[in-house]
């Protein structure tokens, strides 16, 4: 039941016949996991918290960077360098102290995805990491849970409600149907070297606010059962042209098999690359002080490298890695790094898969973590 204070807090919801007390109770009882507390995650978290979703999980391995503040509206300048998940939850508690929050200040991966997602009714995909996005899809399909997809690029964004239960159709009145999955929209994982990132292409600051708000709207509709859901449609938004378009999407017949195969393929890949392919900034610093012969590979763009870089690092930007493989040694440790460790992880995966490298390590958290943990006087953009 709703407490007296909740009747006051959610008065405007209660005045809507479509939501009312029954709908607000559904929101209070709902458990939602938000994967990613960045540009999309911030508006999603703010509006779900304000709406009274009873239990919210926030998972993000990153820390707040000064360049985040142009669009990630939960954070402040004073919080730069602190874990996003923890900072976000502390801020959200001040907005609505009645809600239960769980902060996971680490990455969603194959070792924890099933266990974490199992604790929630639905998932909101706010990540910009394709590996995590396919992982969310596969686990949600296997666990029969809906998830709300959102993506942004420059001035454009997409929103869809995936793997949601659909109303019985005229031809399937008794059968429980589900909507399309992420693998129905995008069957093939993109080439690692073709994946765009905000550091290279940029993004309009208000775009994630718009797309994230649409995602939050779909979550509320899905929980309360009101309105028309984007469960069989992909909404595409272009803020530069101020245009909106919907594309009809159908669930592929082998959606469950595709998810299971995706999960199993990922497990096999993990098993093949058990050679640990990451290193922390502190570990790297310790090894360098011992004069260990480590090749430092910077995969950012030239302007980023000119602002700051590790001493003796060799610059080979992501988009020319394939043509410069011979410059990367195979007979000594190679530490690959970028700004936050995302692009460099793609490079590590790509070089291992396509060229058989076994001596690569990704710098966790990128040069941002190095500046935070090893060289605080370094000026990072």
From TrEMBL:
Domain of life of the native organism: Bacteria
PROSITE patterns, A to Z: RHODANESE_3
Keywords for the protein's UniProt record, in alphabetical order: Nucleotidyltransferase, Transferase
The keyword Hydrolase belongs to this UniProt entry's keyword annotation: no
Statement: the UniProt record of this protein carries the keyword rRNA-binding: no
Pfam family, one: ThiF
A molecular function (GO) term: nucleotidyltransferase activity
Domain named Rhodanese: residues: 290-379
Position of the signal peptide: none
InterPro entries (UniProt xref): Rhodanese-like_dom, Rhodanese-like_dom_sf, ThiF/MoeB/HesA, ThiF_NAD_FAD-bd, Ubiquitin-activating_enz
Listed name of the protein: Molybdopterin-synthase adenylyltransferase MoeB
Organism whose genome encodes this protein: Larkinella insperata
Lineage: Bacteria, Pseudomonadati, Bacteroidota, Cytophagia, Cytophagales
Encoding gene, per UniProt annotation: moeB
